[in-house]
Amino acid sequence: MRIVLVGPPGAGKGTQAQYLAKNLSIPHISTGDLFRSNISQGTALGRKAQEYTSSGRLVPDEVTIAMAKDRLEEADAAEGFLLDGFPRNLGQAEALDAYLRDKEVTLDGVLDLEVPEDEVVKRIAGRRLCRKDGAHVYHVSYNPPKTEGVCDVCGGELYQRDDDTEDKVRVRLEVYHSETEPIIDYYKAQDLVVTISALGTVDEVTRRAMEALGAAESV
């Protein structure tokens, strides 16, 4: 299957992408991984991306698109893939369509994870990370530590990332609504979108997603 995963920040895209890719035996391709891989390998595209990220600027679409195309050329993506974080806007969606047309293949579905805005804010603003190791993540409501402000595993101090405050989360949501949400209508016009609720446990959402993608594949 060839799938695009969309949804607002805090919808659980990264978690669901990993589960779905494993269940469907296709590679999970995320924008973040593309950037990290290209930068760490010192590719020409990675060096270009780093010029922008190191100065706090957005990486231009043409660089992101080129990275995605390179990744889709790899052998493991020949029979399918799950794209997470790409395309992020209409220009990227159109570029992906053009690439797939050249390859004479099409997307099988666009999975839209739907979450109420207040829930997104609650999920992200309540998140706390361990300052000591960075690996352990807690939530003040859903997964609180045994001792407030202290990591259960290593005793490190828990903190809130600067961009996880409620004000900044709402700004990220505004960017999502203005830049990324329009691709949902773009793909709806192609009859590709299946929308599911991203509320519930990880397993519940995964089961919902697999059922929706099965329906999309049979259309």
Could you give the count of β-strands?
A: 8
Task: Give the count of structural domains.
Answer: 1
Quaternary organisation: single chain
Number of contiguous helices:
9
Per the CATH scheme, the topology name is Rossmann fold
Structural class by secondary-structure content: alpha/beta
Main beta-sheet annotation: 5 strands, parallel
Shape: globular
List the uncertain runs.
none
Straight-line N-to-C gap: 13 Å
> Helical percent range?
40-55%
- Give the strand line-up of the largest sheet: 2-3-1-4-8
Write the CATH architecture name. Answer: 3-Layer(aba) Sandwich
What does this molecule look like?
This protein has 219 residues and is of the alpha/beta class. It has a single domain (2-27, 74-218), classed as Rossmann fold, CATH 3.40.50. The protein contains 9 helices and 8 strands. The strands form 2 sheets. Strands 2-3-1-4-8 form a 5-stranded parallel beta sheet, with helices on both faces. α2 crosses α3 (44-53) and α2 (31-41) crosses α4. The radius of gyration is 18 Å and the shape is globular.
Short note summarizing the structure:
The chain is an alpha/beta fold and 219 residues long. It has a single domain (2-27, 74-218), classed as P-loop containing nucleotide triphosphate hydrolases (Rossmann fold, 3-Layer(aba) Sandwich).
What is the element layout, followed by pairings?
Elements (H helix, E strand, L loop, with lengths): L1 E5 L6 H12 L3 E3 H11 L2 H10 L7 H12 L8 E4 L5 H14 L5 E6 L2 H9 L1 E4 L6 E3 L18 E2 L6 H15 L1 H7 L4 E5 L4 H17 L1
Subunit structure: Monomer.
InterPro entries: Adenyl_kin_sub, Adenylat/UMP-CMP_kin, Adenylat_kinase_CS, Adenylate_kinase_lid-dom, P-loop_NTPase
Main location: cytoplasm
